[in-house]
Design a protein that fits this description.
single chain, elongated, alpha+beta
């Protein structure tokens, strides 16, 4: 009986019920979206860079080194002498040293100069190469390129196409493009990995040296080296030795992610405090809605009392109305936050250059918004008590 009366009252006051639902849902979504998207970016970045053991660049910011050399999202620190790469490549502790060179773009897609050893990298020694040619073949000489999956879709490149690269890391709208004379030929298309290489154009590093007039070993530069050692001990030994040298630094991507993560967590803590205020505002909105509804329901409560309903029944109806409204608002808010995070993650991933995994709602996040339920029920106590104590004779 109490449930039937409650559902009928909610339907009769449809507009007020909708506004309360909307307030609770928006508060819930606000409390969840930023943490969900932050965790998506964190997991997506870690997944995209896990194939790289050690990054060696010129001295500078480790974060800038990772963002520029692994994600193509920042300006490179600068070039190292070619001799640095030669020394690493010939070191007996080295399993694989892969040079990287930057400086050109094609329609804002980065042209990455490297060697064919770039395509030997694996997540684990017993797994197949991480980067795989889906159609065509790897470049075999300068000015042949393989194109990442999303890059090929973005600019419509296909096997056999030719193009000229431009100086700089991206095109600028309205600016005159400074194209190089040499033409590149597409000889391969890469399978999608979900990582930054999907939006890159990869060529022999000698292409960049020739285009920029670096024809002798002394004039050549290397922006970064992707380094893999024969053993874990050798990896730390090379890293320590490199950091002690004047011309280069060794960066562990995992350590950079850990530092960025701590910074993100600080921002999330501040956002968590803001989300608590939003939840309190939603609780206040719920209270106002319940209070306004109590004024509207005065005659219906009096009618219930006149028909023999006890104070406990009236009290239960008012409390159950609020509980159902808040609970439904929480469910809608969780669904809305998941939808916004999924769509936002897809858009953000396309801008960052790597795929973001689907958002994950864990118990810690759900517990944060679940606190709104008792707040909403508590807000309904005064109107519920008032309705239960009201006199039927005064309203009829």
């Amino acid at each position: 009986m109490t449930l039937w009366i409650t559902l009928r009252n909610l339907r009769v006051r449809g507009w007020a019920t909708f506004l309360t639902l909307l307030a609770v849902a928006l508060a819930t979504a606000t409390a969840l979206v930023v943490p969900l998207v932050s965790k998506q970016v964190e997991r997506g970045a870690a997944d995209a860079a896990q194939v790289f053991d050690l990054l060696i660049t010129a001295k500078g910011s480790p974060t800038q080194a990772v963002l520029s050399s692994l994600f193509y999202l920042d300006v490179p620190i600068g070039n190292m002498p070619y001799a640095v790469y030669q020394k690493l490549a010939s070191d007996q502790r080295t399993l694989r040293a892969v040079p990287l060179g930057f400086g050109d773009n094609y329609r804002s897609l980065p042209v990455v100069g490297t060697s064919t050893r770039f395509f030997e990298q694996r997540l684990k020694p017993d797994l197949p190469p991480y980067f795989r040619v889906q159609s065509g073949r790897l470049f075999g000489k300068p000015f042949e390129v393989v194109v990442g999956a999303s890059a090929a879709r973005q600019v419509g490149l296909k096997l056999g196409d030719t193009f000229r690269s431009a100086h700089g890391l991206e095109e600028h709208a309205g600016a005159e493009t400074e194209e190089h004379d040499a033409q590149y030929t597409v000889v391969g298309l890469l399978a999608a990995t979900g990582g930054p290489v999907d939006r890159a154009i990869v060529t022999d590093i000698q292409s960049l040296w020739q285009i920029h007039g670096q024809l002798t070993p002394e004039s050549r530069g290397v922006t970064a080296v992707l380094y893999t050692a024969s053993s874990l001990g050798d990896l730390y030994s090379v890293a320590s030795q490199t950091n002690a040298s004047p011309g280069a630094q060794a960066v562990f991507p995992g350590q950079v992610f850990a530092g960025v993560r701590s910074f993100v967590l600080q921002g999330q803590a501040a956002y968590a405090a803001l989300s608590v205020l939003v939840l309190l505002l939603a609780a206040l909105t719920t209270w106002l809605s319940v209070y306004a509804a109590s004024l509207d329901r005065a005659r219906s409560v009096a009618l219930l009392r006149a028909l023999g309903a006890g104070r406990a029944t009236v009290f239960g109806v008012v409390l159950l109305e609020t509980a159902l409204t808040v609970a439904l608002g929480l469910v809608l808010g969780v669904g809305l936050s998941y939808l916004v995070s999924a769509l936002g993650g897809e858009l953000l991933g396309s801008r960052l250059g790597f795929s973001l995994p689907a958002p994950i709602l864990d118990w810690a996040l759900l517990g944060r918004v679940a606190a709104l339920f008792p707040l909403g029920v508590l807000a309904a106590l005064p109107p519920a008590v008032g309705a239960a104590r009201s006199s039927a004779a005064a309203q009829l």
